[in-house]
Amino acid sequence: MNNWKKNTALFLTSQAILLFGSVYSLALPLGMIVFGPLADVISLKALMLVSGIVLVMLGFYTFRKKIRNLLYCGSGRKPD
């Protein structure tokens, strides 16, 4: 592998890490702004339960093709 390819891959990796760090730094204050007053209105237990259910549903939606392929693996049927 050429030296410039190594440097480019390292540069892009560092840029991706920087982007994720910026998103996380922004998400924490926004979460406090939204869920802080909401926790005063709704019980914290219900809020955590609903947030967890939504997170699990979002995870299944995001990885639905991989989950479907895992379920049909070895069954002889081709997934839709």
Question: Can you tell me about this structure?
Answer:
The chain is mostly helical and 80 residues long. It has 2 domains: 1-41; 43-80, no CATH class. The protein has 3 helices and no strands. The chain has helices at 3-41, 44-62, 64-72. The longest helix is centred in the first third of the chain and has 39 residues, at 3-41. 0% of the residues are buried.
* Beta-strand fraction estimate: under 5%
Let me know the average pLDDT: 82
Measured distance between first and last alpha carbons: 40 Å
Spans of at least 5 consecutive residues with low confidence: none
Number of strands: 0
Helix content: over 70%
Key words describing this protein structure:
80 residues; mainly alpha; 2 domains; 0% strand
List the helices and strands and how they pair.
Elements: H1 3-41, H2 44-62, H3 64-72
Task: Give a quick rundown of the structure.
The protein is mostly helical and 80 residues long.
